[in-house]
Here is the input.
Amino acid sequence: MSKIPVGILGATGMVGQNYISLLTDHPWFEVKYLAASPRSAGKTYKEAIEGRWHIRRGYDAALDKLIVEDANDVSKALAAKKRGNLNFVFSALEMEKDIILKLEESYAAAGIPVISNASAHRWTPDVPMLIAELNPEHSDIIPLQQKRRGWEKGFIVVKPNCSIQSYMTPVYSLLKAGYEVKRLIVTTMQAVSGAGFPGVPSLDVIDNIVPFIGGEEEKSEKEPLKILGTIEDGLIKNAAGPLISAHCNRVPVIDGHTVTASMEFGENKPSIEQIKEIWRNFRALPQELELPFAPKQPIIVREEANRPQPGKDRDADKGMAVSVGRIRPCPVFDVRFVGLSHNTIRGAAGGGILNAELIKAKGFFGH
Amino acid sequence: MSKIPVGILGATGMVGQNYISLLTDHPWFEVKYLAASPRSAGKTYKEAIEGRWHIRRGYDAALDKLIVEDANDVSKALAAKKRGNLNFVFSALEMEKDIILKLEESYAAAGIPVISNASAHRWTPDVPMLIAELNPEHSDIIPLQQKRRGWEKGFIVVKPNCSIQSYMTPVYSLLKAGYEVKRLIVTTMQAVSGAGFPGVPSLDVIDNIVPFIGGEEEKSEKEPLKILGTIEDGLIKNAAGPLISAHCNRVPVIDGHTVTASMEFGENKPSIEQIKEIWRNFRALPQELELPFAPKQPIIVREEANRPQPGKDRDADKGMAVSVGRIRPCPVFDVRFVGLSHNTIRGAAGGGILNAELIKAKGFFGH
Amino acid sequence: MSKIPVGILGATGMVGQNYISLLTDHPWFEVKYLAASPRSAGKTYKEAIEGRWHIRRGYDAALDKLIVEDANDVSKALAAKKRGNLNFVFSALEMEKDIILKLEESYAAAGIPVISNASAHRWTPDVPMLIAELNPEHSDIIPLQQKRRGWEKGFIVVKPNCSIQSYMTPVYSLLKAGYEVKRLIVTTMQAVSGAGFPGVPSLDVIDNIVPFIGGEEEKSEKEPLKILGTIEDGLIKNAAGPLISAHCNRVPVIDGHTVTASMEFGENKPSIEQIKEIWRNFRALPQELELPFAPKQPIIVREEANRPQPGKDRDADKGMAVSVGRIRPCPVFDVRFVGLSHNTIRGAAGGGILNAELIKAKGFFGH
Amino acid sequence: MSKIPVGILGATGMVGQNYISLLTDHPWFEVKYLAASPRSAGKTYKEAIEGRWHIRRGYDAALDKLIVEDANDVSKALAAKKRGNLNFVFSALEMEKDIILKLEESYAAAGIPVISNASAHRWTPDVPMLIAELNPEHSDIIPLQQKRRGWEKGFIVVKPNCSIQSYMTPVYSLLKAGYEVKRLIVTTMQAVSGAGFPGVPSLDVIDNIVPFIGGEEEKSEKEPLKILGTIEDGLIKNAAGPLISAHCNRVPVIDGHTVTASMEFGENKPSIEQIKEIWRNFRALPQELELPFAPKQPIIVREEANRPQPGKDRDADKGMAVSVGRIRPCPVFDVRFVGLSHNTIRGAAGGGILNAELIKAKGFFGH
Here is the structure.
């Protein structure tokens, strides 16, 4: 089978670099189209990225010669599509929200599906916000989105913020097992890579932490409700709970968001052992479909007293598994634990790739 | 007025070094007696500390020539007392709990008051565990302790763990203002200096955090109840609340413990503005007595979006003030905030010195 | 004696913040005039600095109400001078070199002496580049500079780059003692504060070092030659040597530049003990004049095996002393050592203040 | 072909962990024997390593059930050899030098070849100290060593210190190309993993560097001379040069030793371009033999202004390639550059594995 040609919008930014790095040797997808700001347009990727490759993994040298196009110019993408060099795009755009909103719609309207990492369309009610193991069924809104907007082949799918994977996969699997999580108080300790490049100045995080990340607490509290929501009349209706309080902090860690979480259950309360059992055994559609980026075991339960740790556990199952540990009673709520997920893989480009694999498997990219 | 001669037990350890550094030019106390393990005994302090000074402040060079005694040998201290070179000791002993328990009692029985930083006697019911602004009245148990144990001039006073200052001073001041704090969920991000030397290996905290500190969560949850307790029949009886859940983490910060806290109030709920007002205006006995180490304003309220931060705020009022910020509604409980205190100053040696000043001011050291 | 009113150009930048912080309670100078970019002009300093105070020390709250002026508008400074609120300015301007060149000349031409931290005029041949202990006699060029340019009261004095203090003070004192240092190979490990704010991205220096700092090696190799130069015909003529090779690196340290240095002497070679003796006893004009910011002992010789270290030694004598250690034979050259100086104090604002004190003491500010 | 069964002496230490991790899925070797201190003997590896796995990669879970033997008891290894479970051992022993000296000899005398990472035998004159690309011919001393000592099948081979790979591979390739490097001044900035676990206390390297590593400078200066030596009368005779001065520093980096180097050539001086050409094209016996751990290109020349960096380049070619950059004229010597190699892979366990592959390919393990 020949690979599906894909494009990266925002190919020179940090998230774009992560997509490019992670898609190296992908069994289904092949990067054939790169677009970025007008400043980079017309350059080879090697020229465009000169002195600006900021992540600690490399990329396929074959991309060095690819000419970078202007991401604002959808006609360039259409031309690539006609040449058979583009089926859909990963959007890693870093622009103002309003511009991204319209630009992603332009691509979709032009027949080019958009698998987006940007936050712009997260609250657009007919755009699904997917974590592939949690709400894969939300992808079924795609034909309704297309119909509603008069788009033939294009559509938009987004993923949530990088801060929520570490606690929402564990919480979701408990909900699915029949245990209502009513209230949740979490404190995140987030890696600097989550802020992009140049991102967090070193003066702010050497021998320091910053107990504030703009907009992050709101996202961490509200995005789960859309993910847990239901499709009604072609729109996604938020779930009513759980009620979440998130304290978000920046810490001197390169990759990996760690979270401490206290959960209050409804009347049906699982035991510590039942929770571990549910987490160890949790599997979902990506695992059934054996999607290439799906972790074999989405939640890894660590029994050591002092794990998970970002340095040691972020790369679990190529950075796609969530690690949990220290599962113990909470003196105030019912149960507390520590969660961890790799923010730029599971929480960003890797999660986006898994979303694209899911959508491919469900046939929405066409044939 | 001539200064009171004081001793340091455990003078070569990290806490001992902090005492020695902070007591430089103290207006009331003068270090005249140093004791440590038999390994250091007989050496000058300069010899004993050679290559082992691990803190980032210096100390009074006059101490270099002082001969270090064996801390296990109380007779050495008694001899110093007879020479007029010792009135009381700061205990910064780093030994097994059982040994410290008995050794501190031996000093007290010999007529030498012990102001301890060690955890051994924290749960001894006739030993007060003091934060000078919170429970100075617990020092009134001293004569009862002496009578009960048949000690004439000696006694033991301890201070609590370094992790609780950042939230308990704010919580206490609200309780005192008539607002019951029923439940509290905190996550601490603690500096490596809290673990002493060699303490936390660098391999564990460069580009990493460790979401576990042995015994720390229990201390953080239970010690506040003794501090808020009352003296009954010569013993301290714990308070019933607040109910606390503490998640304790080690982060790559040299000094300064940061905490995120969510508070649930009883029926009487203060507004955000009332809380800020209470915190800004909080003053206690150490401020009234103008004790040398008392911060002028025990709680500093920061209005910036991203403060307090350990790097910028730990040294507030010479490291003795607690800084708070991000005071805002909590979606799950009532109010949440970020707290910060310097763990080796406010939370250890500085807190111990303030306790000694309080006890001096109350006349318990004799005249 | 009433204090001399001084101004800060670039008062909101990192170097400006350091000046403001260090000048708190200065015995001779009082900050009465603040100027910055047009963006800050017209605001109070408190407003201008809101959320932009990036250094880990505080400043005199009295400045909060001072109105910030536009640094490009020299007439504002002249008006302040007429009101008696400005005698001279510290230039901490962060602009393009050409603009700073002309702007500093405009101030000087208007009769306002400029003590500059900027690099713009370092190679202007009639502008002295001062390290107060090394080439205080270069200040004698000031009347020649004024005559040559037709300036009556104004003049310009600069200081060198922050990277050279750690080795040039030790090297100079040997030269002065009659030992020619012919060749010098140094490797610097420089703190992130040297790059200003936002400066070095945290992604670049957590668990990493960057073996390159733009333009730094050239400055580190050539500026010493001007400092060691002589005044001839009203211009400073560079010294011929020593020949220097500098390898400059950025390391994850907040403050303090460390250097390793190998020295080759001429025929007259001092012993290790002679070198230590020379360094310990080195005193210069600032010490003779007892200038307020002069370290009592400009070079502190450490005998421990593993010192100096930036974390423990940068603040020696309020950050104004250079610490050296590990003085030992070099298998390739003659002698090698480790040097350390605080880059934002000794190497920037503190060095500038000491220069101003020297110039005041020599009477160049007028009376 | 069935794999060769190998053992690890010191299997629970940091170097042993690195061997175990790197040997996962090795095409030639299979770990079948683990030995450590008496404390671990008799436990399964999982039990022995509980809470003590300190490196940031994992290992083959199949080893969890292997029983750890006492490394002091050579008879255990002999029994394993008889069972066909052991051909040779990797020594990662962490004991006193004298004990390692004798213990490694006991294994060799018992017929078990020792590929050692320990420093004990580095200066034993009939023991080769191998960097597989530099002095593979030194392995030819093995039969002479066996004859001299009366050993039939056993022998000892060691590798040099982790600090020298970053500059000696570049220097060696120039020597081999006919350019004498007469003198070399290097400054190393070494990762904390080089000190093992617990190793460097975090208090010593957060916001700090330590300009001293015990014994490291001597090793860095002298070991190259043995590597460049020749076999004469069954002993290795040191080379006369180059003359090296090494300044060794510990920096806050997890993995990867960086070096700055200034080289002085003899009369025949290569140009910058010639040096780059020599380095890019350098290949040696491990590349010819296509050994599994041999990097395809032993020296990677980076052209970017600010590379190599440990965070981005340490893992080049699975951590086995040396990266160099900033190749430029030196104002004092002839040419200077920055070098980098992964200290726990290229500089320790990976280098040891490559040595074993070389010795296997040369037939010294028998058949």
User: Anything to note?
Assistant: The domain at 4-161+349-361 of chain A is CATH 3.40.50.720 (Rossmann fold). The interface with chain C takes residues 54, 192-193, 197-207, 252-254 of chain A (CB under 8 Å).
